[in-house]
Amino acid sequence: GKRTPLCESEFKIFELLASRRGQIFSKADLWAHLGRGAGEPGHKMIDVFISHARKIMASRSDGHQFIETV
User: pTM for this one?
Assistant: First the structure.
């Protein structure tokens, strides 16, 4: 496959989602997994990371959505 550069946070999110396939995570869960404190702003950053992850995965597959929002 083709390599795609990821920042550390994107990699950590991919790693978590892949290791716990089918599990539902809140933005707070993902933010905490990145080692960020609850009082820090940045849950919007999770939206950015997930959006980027979806684009990467769609470009590497037949357009299948591997990450779902519920």
Answer: 0.70
